[in-house]
Amino acid sequence: MFRRFAPPLLFAPLAAIALAGCATYRPLPLDNGRGPRRVADITVPAASMPVPELRAYRFDPADGLDVTEVAMLAVANNPDLKVQRDAAGVAQAQAYAAGLLPDPQLSYEHDRPTGHQPGTTDAYTAGLTFDLGNLITRSARVASARAGAREVDLNLLWAEWQTIAQARTLFDRVYYLRRLVTRLQTERDALAPIRASIAQALQAGDLTYDSASAGLNAASDVANQLADAQRQLHQSEHDLHDLLGLDASVPLHLTARRSRSIPARPRCSARWPR
Question: Would the N or C end of the chain have less CB density within 10 A of its end CB?
C-alpha cells in the first residue's frame, strides 16, 4: 500500500508566491459628492494634455482663467473623459495581457510504501506541461488587442478635441454674455429715473401716452433684452460647469487674455503615434 503526499518544504515557496500575487483592499475616502469647491483645488497636469500647445502652457487660476486654461481644465476634469481614460487603461492592460505566454505547469508526486514490505521502494513522478496552442495564436491575439487599444486611444483623442472645442465656445459665450448683461444693467439703471419721470408726467397729465411711448418702449426693450441675456448666461454657465466637472456653486473668473492659440484640428501627438 502506498501513501501519496507532497513534501512540506514544497508548500512554503508556493504559499509565498500565492500570497504575493493577492490584491489587498483599501477603501478610498469619499468626498461630499459635490466635487472641488475651488478651481485652485484641481490639479491640471500639463504633461497629459493632448497637444504641445497645451503641454507648454502654464495653468495658473490665481489670476483668472483664460480660454486656454479653461480648455486645459476641461481636458483634465471632464467626467466623460475620465471614464474614457479608464477604458483606455483597461484596453492597454488587455493588450499587455494578450502578449503574455502561458505559465508552464509543473507537477510532482512522491509515493512511499507502507507496511515495510520487502522489495518495495519509494516512487517519484514529475511532469512538465506547456500549452502550445496558446503560443500558436499569440501573434494574432496580440495584434487584435493592440488594434483595439489604439482604437480606444484615438477615440479618447477625438473626445478630448471635441471637449477643447466646446470649452472654447462656452468660454466665449459666457465671457461676452457677462459683458452684455453688465452693459444692459447699466442701461436699465440709467433709464430707471427717466421711466419714473415719464410715469409722474403721465399721472400729472403733462404727457400723453403717444408722446411717452418712445421712452417707455426703450426702457421695456432694455428690460426684455436683459432678461433674455440673463437666461442665456445662466444656461451657458451651467453648461460650462458641467463640461469642467464642477459644481454650479464654484465661481469661474474668466479673463480675456489669450497668450497662445489652440490648433483648430487634432494632430497626432506623442501619446498617439502615427
Answer: C
